[in-house]
Amino acid sequence: MNADSTRAKSIEDQDKRIEAALEKIKHRIVVFSGKGGVGKTTVAVNLAYTLLKQNNKVGLLDADITGPNVPKMTGAEVSPQVLEEFGQIIPHEQNGLKIMSIAPMLPKDSPLIWRGPLRSGAICQFLADVVWDELDFLLADLPPGTGDEVLTAAQKMKPQMAIVVTTPQEVSLIDCRRAVNMAKKLDIPNIGVVENMSGLICPHCDQQIDVFGTGGGEMMAADMKVHFLGRIPMELSVRQGCDAGKPIVLEDTPSKTSEVFEQISGNIDKILSE
Ligand SMILES: Nc1ncnc2c1ncn2[C@@H]1O[C@H](COP(=O)(O)OP(=O)(O)OP(=O)(O)O)[C@@H](O)[C@H]1O
Ligand SMILES: [Mg+2]
After folding, report:
1. Which domains does the chain have, with CATH numbers?
2. Does the beta carbon of 9 sit less than 6 angstroms from any atom of ligand 1?
3. Using CA positions, which residue lies closest to atom 5 of ligand 1?
4. pLDDT tens column, 75-111
5. N or C: which end of the chain has fewer CB within 10 A?
6. Which atom of ligand 1 is nearest to the CA of 243?
7. Which atom of ligand 1 is nearest to the CA of 232?
């Protein structure tokens, strides 16, 4: 066997393992956006825990290989268990959520300087060799933009849904339209838009301040004929929860954001059961 055919065989074997893993996962969702910093990881983490609270078995794959933030935002800064003998990886479980991220395996503060094929390879391995087992939902938190990771996740995960996160401001909406069109091109059957950072309720006077505007995401979703899933306000406690590794939806105190995440998960359920 020459080098080319050995490589082709190992890709074929990996694809088979991915297929076997996916058979056990009912719903697969990718979370992405055209723009950085709009709240993809915040949405992925809080949505994963909302679905978990509704008695689903949920996994969260941190597919942002060079900027992995899921461990920080969930407090899951623990390496997964690697079973070398079997070529398997056991994901770390944090408050019942199965999490796979490259972050805990990297030395602190060191950059991961990997070109696209290596990053895509890592995502494939997370799908093929991580023991996700039976899941109702597997969510993938993707990096910003429409690059290699989005392509790999869409091709290998075969997601039934893409969630595109945007802020209501024009500069994010422009990039969000590209992301929606990418999801359409990739034939992801259901596309939903989440508008994040939609208005800030002033803690002093209770008035809403539209820092980034409001309503733009919903208008864009209608215009592009895709689903609108919900509008998440800016809340201090959301940011504090992210920084402390305690997602806001796990807090006992009710919040507007937790309420919205329940609406979003209800909308997703409805769309996926249609
Ligand atoms: N609704 C919100 N209210 C308050 N803070 C928020 C909200 N959504 C996100 N944030 C904060 O904004 C910052 C960016 O969010 P996040 O990291 O989720 O964005 P991202 O799109 O995943 O970024 P990247 O493109 O770097 O992956 C974080 O500090 C997060 O805590
Ligand atoms: Mg992120």
Report:
1. 27-273 (3.40.50.300)
2. no
3. 239
4. 998 989 999 888 899 999 999 999 999 998 888 888 8
5. C
6. 31
7. 1
